[in-house]
Amino acid sequence: MWAAAGVVTLGFLIALETAARHYNVPGPISTQVRELVVPPKSGALLYAGMALMMVVLTRRERFIALGTAIGIDVVFLLVRWAAGIKVTEGHPFGNGAWWVVLGFGVVALTRRTGAERVLLLKGVGLGLLLVAGRKAGDTWLHITSKAHPTVLDQYVATADHALGSPSWLAGRIVEATGVVGFNVLDFVYGQLAVAAVLVALYQLRGVAAERRFPRHHLVRTFLVIGLLGPGIYMIFPVVGPVYAYGTGNEHWDAISLWWSDPPRTEPWALANLWPEIPPPADGPQPMPFDGITPRNCMPSLHTAWAVAIFIHTRNGQRALRFAGTFWLIATLTATLGFGYHYGVDLVAGVVFTLTIEAALRALERGWDRSGTLLVAHGILVFAALLVSYRYLPVQMAGHPWVAGPLVILAMASVIYGYVRTVNRWDPKAAPAPRPEPQPEMV
Questions:
Q1: What does pTM read for this prediction?
Q2: pLDDT at 440 over 80
């Protein structure tokens, strides 16, 4: 299975690299090769990939790996300083982590045998998949902006009236919180991948001792979400309210400390309405948009990934459960409050994640009637939501007290079905036997 997954992943990356060259955008393979030398776009991502790889290492090997990565980064820093090379884009660190991950791949092939080789290759593959998934996602976002000159934001914004246009409400709330609220949400939104890696490391903490991976963990769900989600972007291209109905919103400049390049789409926005005035709810039609802004709104993958983190922290310690809940609430608030998503995107993202999680769990334990029905129900609800947003938005906006509850009930039915089915699947701890009363000498 791991070999088949590797072949499929490599084929997908090659196809994506070819498509990227057709659209004259950076491809995932060439980007990863370049980052062996040039400053990486995200050094933290490369160190996160190395951290996932290190779950299969002993404590001594982890110390060596981390020290080697830092040492290589120091050498790169000194060489760039001596050559007078200034890092203007990306991070000045991360190359060392990337070299270490690839180095352990070579070690697995040349110095390990049998089960130890397989285990180390799985660890290296996990780190490579995290980085490759991120690079493939970046490339795919470039392709969506080139492949779809028109977007469907007017349809989604109209359908969103059924939920009360929550992005407009959340945008005003975030604006009212000022610098503190904005930057806390900005941090949570931007560090979602780091939170996922921390949860994954908790789930995989026993791999080095047990010499095997658990059958299901967060990384699997994350990767499948990242693989399938962008395909929906191509079917339902949407850029989001801050782009389609805003002009970069100059008020963000006054309260943001961390955004150096807020979105500015004045020539393409329908009007400067977000977050003050909800858009009209009649006559939606496809609208042309620039060739730069990613069409990455439907479904909300940030919501999908935050829901996955929430699910996978339910069996953890109390602090981990609290962190998963906080990250979910803060991510939902940020996706709406920053104008990146409409409310109906979030509903679609929740259904999308639960369906994928149900399918992966069913695959892990063996398909049965309950798993098949749950996955089929999730797919049906997700498809019905997209069809409604596209072909019934005016009717949804005209009857919000009917359409809104129906949308929420559809999502709730998937949540209820998932919780009930998975609770039946999870093994229950046997109660501790009560000691039998023993006769005593009188």
A1: 0.86
A2: no
